[in-house]
Amino acid sequence: MTREHCTSPASPTQPPRERPGLLSVVLPAFNEALNLTELLPALALAFKDQARQVELLVVDDGSSDDTALAVQALIHQGLPVRLLRLSRNFGKEAALCAGLDAADGDAVIIMDADGQHPIATALQMISDWRQGFDVVYGVQTGRSESQTLLRRRFTGLFYWLIHHGSRINMPPNAGDFRLLDRRVVLALRALPERARYMKGLFAWVGFQARAIDYVPHRREHGASSYGLAQLLSFALVGLTAFTKIPLRLVSVLGLVVSLLSLVFGLWVVLEKTLLGQPVSGFTTLAASITFLAGVQLLCLGIIAEYLGRVFDEVKHRPIYVLQDLTPPLQNQLLPTDPPEASKERA
């Protein structure tokens, strides 16, 4: 099922496209040897008629298992797979950047290497791209129902801050599963920042987009490496990269505290001069100092997050470092009969 991106017209202004001359599929992978052994043959089989040429780009993000060996074995079997090995684990955002930098396709699909993204949805993305859309992204259905109430509240606050503090519309429950036109990929490559929050960057570059609802498959092997700490870290990166509302809230908080302090001071003076009440002693003073110290530390923490982003940017370190890179597939078409996937994922 498809639905239109709220900032895009109901129909694309671009003319319909022919099937891509080269279709690139970027798959960031961290310890996904077992899943890739099943997924890559299934992708090769599904996409063989969708483009004149296909390349499956696996970005090994410093895996500690046999991910690289499993991919190399599939390359030797004749699958149109390229392997990019990063020198260590740089994180999924950096692995995505590495894959997009290496992708040469007219259309580029980003999928997870765990096999949870449906191939049938990816095929629908190609169909929508051929209609003229530049970006087609997947929206996971039923995701909010599976989250706790506290997590839903924090997620809602995060998107509220993004939407009201920036000029981009970042749709909830839309992750990295998407198809990008070549023009979009080139626009993303031109962005200079190093602290990457790709979900926000996808929305920032704009272009005509369409959303597709999908239900993720069950993960067959292994477990997700993303926990609460990683999600909170991504949220901080996204907030500091796309909105200045936290800094403005610091200013508002300082103004409110100053006004309250002024009102309290006037009340103490009036209480002493008019009513003859003694000035409160140690308890009031200690509570006031503790409260103000907490406010100051909170404000410094928010400012420190933005300062940390500046510190990362001015060092000009690369986003990732490549250890090995399989050369591009020169005039190599998909084999007529790629190895069958052990399980049908479409």
TrEMBL record:
Source lineage:
Bacteria, Pseudomonadati, Pseudomonadota, Betaproteobacteria, Burkholderiales
InterPro entries (alphabetical): Glyco_trans_2-like, Glycosyltransferase_2, Nucleotide-diphossugar_trans
Instruction: Enumerate the CDD domains for this protein.
Output: DPM1_like_bac
Record-annotated Glycosyltransferase 2-like domain positions? 24-185
Predominant location = membrane
Q: Which domain of life is it from?
A: Bacteria
The UniProt entry lists membrane topology as: Multi-pass membrane protein
Membrane-spanning parts: 249-270, 282-307
Keyword list (alphabetical) reads: Glycosyltransferase, Membrane, Transferase, Transmembrane, Transmembrane helix
- What Pfam families does this protein map onto? Glycos_transf_2
Protein's recorded name = Glycosyltransferase family 2 protein
Protein's cellular compartments? Membrane
